Amino acid sequence: MIYLYTDKQDSGKWILQNDLYFNLYTSNERFTEDDRELIWKIDHAKLNKDKHIETKYGLGTIRNLSSGCKTILNIMKNPGKVVNANECGKNVLDILFSMEDISLYMTRPERIHIKDDVEICFNDTDIVTGSKGYEQWWSREYRRRELDDL
Amino acid sequence: MIYNTIKFDAAPFSYSLEFADRITLVRGDSATGKTYLYQILEDLRLLEEYKAIKLFNYKTEGFHDNLKKCRDKFIVIDNADLLLNNEDRRFINFDCSNQYMLFARNCDGLNLSQGSFMLLHENDYKVSLKRELVAV
Is the CB of A135 inside 8 Å of chain B's CB atoms? Predict the structure, then answer.
């Protein structure tokens, strides 16, 4: 199940600023071979053991990863947290929607590849399945926002 | 428009950014070099030719107040989805003295044209803005 929240909450359980949270906390975690593969897949960055990275942009540290890559690492390293996915591009969202038991904050829909059997729970109330359910839920939500003049 | 084109070399890359609207929204996949471009602009803005460039990101203090003080600037906002509230979006729409390049995905509340939607495109170390196909 993927849990989506569309209204912001200021809670210690939420990560709203992914760059900041990653730079201060997640970057100090230990990174596994799976993490390294993910970093390569998204950023084409080679993560060295001393947390330096090599990319086409040059040498840097793990804090120079993209916001999208930092978001996905924040999710993986902080299970149970609701993580802001509003800054993620389609390449990262496609990966996120193939994951299990993650909680995301998203304020608008993106065109994402979602498998037919993926269950998504919106705001702890509505459960939908696959791309079709996802798109139908957002269509209803946008009609609601229009009626509420939001 | 403050700048129709911004051109510079930042080895190994060569940038040629052409703007078609007062507001440019740079979207696309993660890891296409948006924040890297922002960091280069931090140096470029120190040149006389590009002194109209004004930069904001999530580290900026007093973002909302400072944005409203800008006149005749080329404003670049990284992490714009985090920073822009509805009031900022209204300011951007109605204050025509500034030009904007927003690294943002959420276009709600902004007056945009088809020329506003761009992707950062890199080919053989040449970086440009490419129009994103969208229905406006």
Answer: no
